[in-house]
Structure formats: structure tokens, C-alpha cells
């Protein structure tokens, strides 16, 4: 199955939706499952800047764990898949304004997001982590009050850091965060543990997580517009089938190296 990459520029309207706390929910006149079947294509969105979960390879293709899971779900539903990349801070706004059909981009399931979108899954679990250089003077989460913390704009890690009152610098994605930490422009970065750990090792950086950061594991789900119970059920059934027949294990082993469900 061909994964087609389309670069989507975030509109002002989508950005406004994102910044407003996602207060607007576009009404769905009918369940979208039939519409997708008629079109034969499901458009799924992600940032394209979150290796190894989703990123652009040397052939200019969006690859990784997320697009592989999304493509397999679509395949089980008899659909092709179109991959759309967009800035993370406007990604829910884009979903609500029908620029794509689902977000398969390692989105944490939160109560705030569940007010405006429905989730399929979770399709994996992870936790927040704060990484520093191995030789950093930062040894404890208690020292973050005096540090510059790098986060991805629009992620739950940004919201958490601001609620903590930390000094934050925002970036477009994980690769940029890693470079900023390596170059000393931030003292630490907050991100998903699995993604940051694997990307750190792949790049050969000597970064380590703060061990005393108290966080609970969170589920990551596939976001769709509300009012589509048939679509949600079909996607959930496809996901559960993938997890039961060994396909999920193969995808996870290829892109992550271990089972992350």
C-alpha cells in the first residue's frame, strides 16, 4: 500500500480552535464510515516530526509506527490511506474542520481532548520524561524551577510545564528538541519517554532522564470527530484484530524494538 505524503499548512482557523481550548465541535450530520467507504480512502494526520513513531525518511516518505498502524487499520476496513503532516499545535483544529479523517500521531488521551474528539484505542502506552545531558548539573526534578525546559508546541508536555510554572521554550518537534538540548540552548526537554529515549540512542546523544519525576503512564489513541459511533467501532475492531493476530507485534518490533501496548 502506498503511503502518500501531503504537507498541510495550518490555517488561522485551525490555530484559533487549538488555542481556544478546542471549544468548537463541528456537528456530524451522519456517521462518516459510509462516506469513507464510498471514497475508498482514509486521511490520517500526524506531525511527521516524532521519530520513530512518525517521521520523514530519505525518500521523502512519512514512515514509522504510527503510519504503519494507521495503514493497517485502514486496510482491514477495505480502505487506502493518505498521510497528511501538519503542525501539532493545530492538529485537532484541522480534524474538526474536516482536513483529515483521523489523527494517528501518538496523541495522549486526556479528559480535555475527550470533550471535543472521540478516541480509538489506546494503541500504546508510555509516560512523560524529562531528559538532560549526562553531565548536567540538573540531577532532580526539583531543580527544574531554575532551568530552561524545551517542549513541543501544543503537546500535553507544554501544558504540564506551564502549569508547573517552568520557563519553557517551544519547538516544532522532537528532532529540534534534541538538537537544542545538545547545543545547550535549553537545559532539559520534556517528551514521551519511549520516543525521546529511542531518538536519543539513534542520534548517539548522551542524554539521561531525571529518575525522580513522578508521572503516571498514559494511553495514546487515535482521534476522530465526535458523532461517529460506527466509524469508531470499525476502527476499534480493526485495531483489536491487529493486536490479536500478531500484526501489532511485527509493527512494534520493526519500529520500536519491543512491545509497547
UniProtKB/TrEMBL annotation:
The keyword Cytoplasm does not apply. Residues 1-28 form the signal peptide. Residues 41-259 form the Solute-binding protein family 3/N-terminal domain. The keyword Oxidoreductase does not apply. It comes from the Bacteria. Transmembrane segments: none annotated. Keywords: Signal. This is Amino acid ABC transporter substrate-binding protein. It comes from Pseudodonghicola xiamenensis.
